[in-house]
From TrEMBL:
PANTHER family: METHYLMALONYL-COA EPIMERASE, METHYLMALONYL-COA EPIMERASE, MITOCHONDRIAL. Keywords: Metal-binding. Residues 4-135 form the VOC domain. InterPro entries: Glyas_Bleomycin-R_OHBP_Dase, MeMalonyl-CoA_epimerase, MMCE/EMCE_epimerase, VOC_core. The keyword Metal-binding applies. It comes from Heyndrickxia acidicola. Belongs to the methylmalonyl-CoA epimerase family. CDD domains: MMCE. Pfam families: Glyoxalase_4. This is VOC family protein.
């Protein structure tokens, strides 16, 4: 199955400062901004476009339960995940299972833009957080 880079997720402490950097230094454009209070997400999200590439800036809204807050405590701010777009997430999950690659339990969801996504277990991806996603409304 073909996989293409969809976006890069960046963990940040201060969303406004990060938006300013992407707009004024990298000449990016703010595409959308929203808050996700879904348990296990708890973050403010700013979607930036820089010369055709998408970046998701992720700032924790709950320093106790947000995985972004936990990531920043453990590794510092910076690249949080790489998201790869697949044609069909259900088929990709079957392929992953056959390859012995696990996903993070409870991470399967649909975001506000209709993107279905799931995170692969970093223990099976050489430590990198990888998201698989598809956009079923586009088919």
């Amino acid at each position: 199955m073909e996989k293409t880079l969809d976006h890069i997720g960046i963990a940040v402490r201060h969303l406004e400062d990060s938006i300013h950097f992407y707009e004024h230094v990298l000449n990016g454009t703010l595409i959308d901004r929203y808050r996700s209070e879904v348990p296990g997400v708890e973050s403010d999200v700013a979607i930036m476009e820089v010369n055709g590439s998408r970046i998701e800036l992720l700032a924790p809204t709950n320093n106790t339960t947000s995985p972004i807050a936990r990531f920043i405590r453990q590794k510092g701010k910076g690249v949080h995940h790489l998201a790869y777009r697949v044609d069909n997430l259900d088929e990709a999950l079957i392929e992953l299972d056959k390859q012995g690659i696990r996903t993070l339990e409870g991470s399967l969801r649909i975001n506000k833009h209709g993107r279905r996504l799931i995170y692969l277990n970093p223990a099976d991806t050489e430590g990198t957080i990888i998201e698989y996603c598809d956009y079923p409304e586009e088919h």
